[in-house]
Amino acid sequence: MPLETPVRIVRELAARGYNAEQAAVTLIASTERPGRTLERVVEHVDDAALRITAGDVRGALGDPAVEDPPVSTGEPASNRTTEDDDRRDTSPEETSETASGVGGERSPRNDTDGGVDTSTSAVAGGGRTAAGGGPEHGSPAASRTADPSLRSLEVDGDVTGQSTGTGEYGDFVKVFRDRYEKLSKQLRGRVNHRPATAIQSMSGGTDAAMVGLVNDIRSTKSGHWLVELEDTTGTFPCLVMKDREFAGFVDELLLDECIAVEGTLSDDAGIMFVDSMHFPDVPRTYSPNTADRHVQAALVSDIHVGSQEFEADAWTRFADWLHTEEAERVEYLLIAGDMVEGVGVYPDQDEELDIVDIYEQYERFSEHLKDVPGDMEILMIPGNHDAVRLAEPQPGFDENLREIMSAHDARITGNPSLVTVEGVRVLMYHGVSLDEVIAELPEEKASYDDPHKAMYQLLKKRHVAPQFGGKTRLAPEEKDYLVMEEVPDVFHTGHVHKLGWGKYHEVLAVNSGCWQAQTDFQKSVNIDPDVGYAPILDLDTLDMTVRKFA
Amino acid sequence: MRAEDERYFERIESRLDEAFDRAERAKGMGYDPEPEVEIPVAKDMADRVENILGISGVAARVRELEGEMSREEAALELVTDFVEGTVGDYEGRAGKVEGAVRTAVALLTEGVVAAPIEGIDRVEILENDDGSEFVNVYYAGPIRSAGGTAQALSVLVADYARSLLGIEEYNARTIETERYAEEISLYDKETGLQYSPKDKETKFIAEHMPIMLDGEATGDEEVSGFRDLERVDTNSARGGMCLVLAEGIALKAPKIQRYTRGLDEVDWPWLQDLIDGTIGKDEADAEADADAADADTEAADASESGGDEEHGDGTEEMESGDDEDDALDGRTGPPRLDPSTKFLRDLIAGRPVFGHPSAEGGFRLRYGRARNHGFATAGVHPATMHLVDDFLATGTQIKTERPGKAAGVIPVDSIEGPTVRLANGDVRRIDDPEEALEVRNGVEKILDLGEYLVNFGEFVENNHPLAPASYVYEWWVQDFEAAGAPVQALGDDPAVDLEHPTPAEAEEWATDYDCPLHPDYTYLWHDVSVAQFEELADAVANGRVVGAEADGGLAGTDGSAERAETSDGAAADGHYVLELVNAETVAETLENLLVEHTQREETIRIPEWRLPVRSLGFEIGEGGSIGRTWDPADLSPAAREWDAGDSAIKAVNEVAPFEVRERAPTRIGNRMGRPEKSESRDLSPAVHTLFPIGEAGGSQRDVGEAARGRDEQGRRGVVDVRVGDRVCPDCDAHTYRTTCPDCGTHTEPYYECEECNQVIEPDEAGRVHCDRCDRDVTSPDWFSIDIGEEYRRALEAVGERESAYEILKGVKGLTSADKTPEPMEKGVLRAKNGVTSFKDGTVRYDMTDLPVTSVRPSELDVTAADFRELGYETDIDGEPLKFDDQLVELKVQDIVLSDGAAEHMLKTADFVDDLLEQYYGLPPFYEVEEREDLVGELVFGMAPHTSAAVVGRVVGFTSAAVGYAHPYFHAAKRRNCDGDEDCVMLLMDGLLNFSKQYLPDKRGGQMDAPLVMSSRIDPSEIDDEAHNMDIVRQYPREFYEATLELDDPETVEDLIQLGEDTLGTDEEYRGFDHTHDTTDIALGPDLSAYKTLGSMMDKMDAQLALSRKLRAVDETDVAERVIEYHFLPDLIGNLRAFSRQETRCLDCGEKYRRMPLTGDCRECGGRVNLTVHQGSVNKYMDTAIHVAEEFGCREYTKQRLEVLEKSLESVFENDKNKQSGFADFM
């Protein structure tokens, strides 16, 4: 029961439209009759207030009314009487299930278990009494020993509010030139490259090298590969013989990614025989940044509120767990898109929606977000189901939607965004291009069962969605927001609804599953989604634990 | 065949011979690519098959076999002939297989469609991995037009030939099997298949297929997995192969099995697994699915065998009666068909909905065949056509709820017209198109669209359960007779109008003979609820009978019902009206009943009130007093609960003194499909002469301009083009012309092998192959042609001046194999006469096809005398033909031209005469002054995707924008009439100007070209769809009764004669009776409003305005669907296209998948630009939002638009440079 109390308090407050500081919740929980206190607090606070602070609670406690004789029915009963939602009625049962679930399913696949240790120790240290506290508030801290002053979260490469493209031809040219500029920079040092026009005028038999965007890939009658590269001066055809050891790379090539090749020109100087091929890639020696303290981030995505298949129970268990001591170090929640199921995403979608109104979908999502401890830092980017443009880069939600989701004061940025969390660079990208990578590349290089392998490909190409003209849609902007100019420490995507993670040259790639059960469409194409997983990342070690809540 | 029919055909053939002789003489001059007419005449199907294939001896053998066996069996029998070499002289085994396969397909498609020549590329013999040989059949896209059964049988034929020739079976490699599976799903995704086999199914077929199916690439999309296979020479999808495997083998397995069983040599045991549907399913659900799969195949089969294979797209969804369902849910009511919403799918902006599925107020189904009715047509009252704001015209296609999918609209004025409420409160039925036009602007609501005539045969053809029939005169009169009434005597009595009796007569008949009430006075009681019925009865009880001239009730101040003034019965009928207090609900009930009345502020007046009042259970007493005969308590529970109280029909029958039938139990929803068509077929840009002038003529391809212009070297009028090298057989001079410039002799193509310079002669099949170098040889070469000289010479030759016309347009280059240019003289004369040429050298005119079986000379703008001259002697009743308005049964090859077509044919006739006189130096053939002169002249009718023309004879003209002809004529072209269109050509133009030498040398080039003509129609050899047309004067009473039980059409098929019943008898060319007449076959608007309205927005506004007027239409749903099916896909599609678009060079046209990094064109340095611009992406945005608001669309739809609008802003607007609003300045 003690475990539940903060959760119940948070819910009760949420039901009344309030968000609460963790400290405030702890304060309420620590009173003799939390239910009574809560009533007092609610009466006490200003009608316009959205967030209940520890100060509010103390103010309410100072109110003599608290001293009134306690009502004999007690807290749980009073809670129950005010509850009008079925979901809450069944919550005690579920909560206990979750508790065991969490224990049993701890780190189902990963071998790191740092998170568990720390959370246990945190329980010991924090106890359930109020102790310490943030200097700003000067209030007693919660069982979650969060100290907001230690946090830092910066966002880079966010197109929100910066979308200056107007859909002209020139905008498109600019964006591809910018891509070439940025990615060719990564390759220039490695080969002695020449512009395409210069190579065109070189004589046969000479050695040459070129950096370019892949313009075309064809197989020749005899099974060799003809890769046409393009730079800002023109194009040049490069032949990769099928028996070369790097011929397999051709299978991995996507159109419009940037590569460098070295080779020899044919006798008539019309073609280059490739001897080596280079990708922008993550340097093998790359050493990732880590946080200075033990702090964790939960990486989730694809919540799909509004869908009939949205797993509200799993999400509630997750939110409940975040209130536990075990989760007290989880101070960040990073959501990689698809907050809601959206409208008009596919034909006749309305027939499969639980909530047909898009704004109600976001309202409901916002309610679910309120279940999460109020002191967590939340950051979210949109996905292809969200009510923003589909073309990438996608700007963050507009004012109207931010208003709806304002309760938690979450950070809303574009897709993609490079988020630096206490020094750790997390590249957040929804992941639409993964479909294309998986479709284009051989199964062993990229598949829905191992989505992180597809992510490795993107890291290698240093671009989140290289191929133009296929499944991925591009909105032209003055620069290419989709290039990974800097190497991220963590690459976080969703979209494919499959859980998978692994390290590529020390960069952690995570695809975080979803909160939506298998849809009819997924059934028809035989996709079995990974539902209700929350990967928990240690920002100080970049170790990861995956928790299951479904 | 009757002597009369024989005379008719001989008449046509003698005119044909006359034309042929003249044409042969003209062609004999050698001015054309070939010195002879290139369209051979086929007297029957066997001839057509032989001519299309060009394999001699086939026709004779086919005729031999035809008498003994079915066409399919004959196709298999012919395999033996090919293998033994008794038919066709093929050396190689591959050739024998090829000949057999082509012949089989040609035979099964009646020698009309192009599939046998275009759909099968070649047959090869290749080697299996074990060294044995197998047969590979190479299919192409046009195999589609053969239909599934012929496709599947072509495989069987190939296999049969293979086994007879002792060639081994094909053993597919695993990668090939996998490739089939990948490729078929790719093709299905890209192009779509009627039937999409599962991967397992495809692999199963591929593993067992004894011959290899191969083909040419038809799409750009490539397979990703199984590429670069040794025995498959493309990575793209092979469309022909996919069709044959999926829609042929997989879908038609049961049909093929029927034939494999009869052959000892071939054995395809694996077909059984396909038929059982156990392939591609897990063991567990295999059994459960087996039945369903069976039913699927059968349904598909049934629709296929019944339907035209060319048009049939997909299996029909069968609606079944819901009487059982009703019984289950405890609801009592009459059997009804379930509404079907399928026809509303993909609603298009600007094409209105006329009725929602089975909605009250929509078209009322009436059974019958009007004389201009046939297969896939729907009879609509011309007043309705006008009242739906002219959106319906003769020939407009509608997508319909039942029985088929689509139909061509025809005007029939012998059925009931629409009922409307006018702004002045009058509720009137409009049975006169003139009246419809007069009141149109005052129409507030269209309460009912009137009747909708569908013939019984339509239900047979679609195998659709019969829908309950309206109670109509032709049914009632049979009931009346059965009830013992002296129908014959009453019919002969000039004082009695059986069809439209007076109320008193109707009442008398109904009561005296115990016969249901006459339909004229039968109202739609089933459309009002019992509650409404009772309310109306109450209103009538409180109503009063007043003098018709009385205005406002002065005359009837004291209690109406007992009024003395109405003492004589006649007055009660004629001069007095029933006046009720106006209440909205009462008015609505009367409207739903379709009782004509007038609504005023305070009162409702019903002029024809006697029978409505009697039906409501009132007595009309002496002197016209009315008195109620029942209490609400008298209504039985059964009547109250009938159809859950929604239908008052039982209640009426309980209180009325006579039986009242259901007036309109079946309503049929529909919407506009394509508009009708009647316009000349021009190439784009239009072409007068198939003479190449390169780029010299500018974008107009102006020959005059080309003749005057200078090229880069300063040569005037000289262009370099690739044309066929020809040689003069007499003086060996080389030229591109068809006659020798030196001696005038006809020249022949010259084939010289480029490698070895050897001159090659074409073989019999027309192939030119150098055996030494093993390469195909072609004749075209680069020539520098002096267009100026050519032009002057042509003008001079035909004695014309350039001022005789505005412009002479040529072509840029030639696409035919030998690139033979057409003599420019022909172009000069075409330009002079204002006609243009199609790709094959003919002049064509397109019209929507409509059927007609009997005509009046007067409506065709000709006289009885003209008709007698054409060989018509009697009218349909056998009376001598004397008057212009007598109804005459149309002969099978006679056609009616639209006004536009007649005008175009006149110009063509002038052109042909000019050509004969001025170019060939022969006497003119037509000498027409006015269009009457065209009567009796012959034309070719020809449909797209076919290769055989049918000879027709012009008998008259119509103002409707359609081509009316006998249904058998359309069927002979393999068309039906659901909005299909095809072309006519003037006979002599085809004979003189058509040449195979002009046909494009690419896949499909032989389609739509008259490779052969049928001079007479054999009803047994046409598309059998037409055979299901009924040809009687009256449907029997049993039929009408069967419809009420939703019986299948087969159950009554024996009662009604169909076209197929007379096949092969002397009667096969005559006796096409109809049940309904129409005053004129061109009533209603001449053109649909869709064609007369300007912009898409105008059309859509009109569409939505109409939807508000129609009671049967839910305007919000229409708006919703227009947004959902037209605007949203357009917006979403264009936005998607924008964000992944190609770009194109504005200067040289080079396309780029992605914007070049150079910014400019890599080919020419020119300006590159987008192919999808902002303007094309958001053109409908504002309209869509506006429509959604105005018509109260769902929030969901509005929000989709909102999200899209924001996306558009986000993509196309600069965040930092947004238009500043007022707030920015505060």
Automatic annotation (TrEMBL), chain A:
Residues 298-495 form the DNA polymerase alpha/delta/epsilon subunit B domain. Residues 124-136 have a biased composition (Gly residues). GO terms for biological process: DNA catabolic process; DNA-templated DNA replication. It catalyses: Exonucleolytic cleavage in the 3'- to 5'-direction to yield nucleoside 5'-phosphates; DNA(n) + a 2'-deoxyribonucleoside 5'-triphosphate = DNA(n+1) + diphosphate. Residues 59-149 are annotated as: Disordered. Keywords: DNA replication, DNA-binding, DNA-directed DNA polymerase, Exonuclease, Hydrolase, Multifunctional enzyme, Nuclease, Nucleotidyltransferase, Transferase. Gene3D superfamilies: 3.60.21.50. InterPro entries: DNA_pol_a/d/e_bsu, DNA_pol_delta/II_ssu, Metallo-depent_PP-like, Pol2_small_arc. This is DNA polymerase II small subunit. It comes from Halobellus rarus. The gene is polB.
Automatic annotation (TrEMBL), chain B:
Residues 7-276 form the DNA polymerase II large subunit DP2 N-terminal domain. It catalyses: DNA(n) + a 2'-deoxyribonucleoside 5'-triphosphate = DNA(n+1) + diphosphate; Exonucleolytic cleavage in the 3'- to 5'-direction to yield nucleoside 5'-phosphates. It comes from the Archaea. It holds the Pfam family PolC_DP2_central. GO terms for biological process: DNA catabolic process; DNA-templated DNA replication. Residues 285-307, 315-327 have a biased composition (Acidic residues). Residues 702-716 have a biased composition (Basic and acidic residues). Its EC number is 2.7.7.7, 3.1.11.1. Keywords: DNA replication, DNA-binding, DNA-directed DNA polymerase, Exonuclease, Hydrolase, Multifunctional enzyme, Nuclease, Nucleotidyltransferase, Transferase. GO terms for molecular function: DNA binding; DNA-directed DNA polymerase activity; single-stranded DNA 3'-5' DNA exonuclease activity. Residues 285-341, 692-716 are annotated as: Disordered. Residues 337-760 form the DNA polymerase II large subunit DP2 central domain. Residues 804-1099 form the DNA polymerase II large subunit DP2 catalytic domain. Heterodimer of a large subunit and a small subunit. HAMAP family: DNApol_II_L_arch (MF_00324). Possesses two activities: a DNA synthesis (polymerase) and an exonucleolytic activity that degrades single-stranded DNA in the 3'- to 5'-direction. Has a template-primer preference which is characteristic of a replicative DNA polymerase. Belongs to the archaeal DNA polymerase II family. This is DNA polymerase II large subunit. The lineage of its organism: Archaea, Methanobacteriati, Methanobacteriota, Stenosarchaea group, Halobacteria.
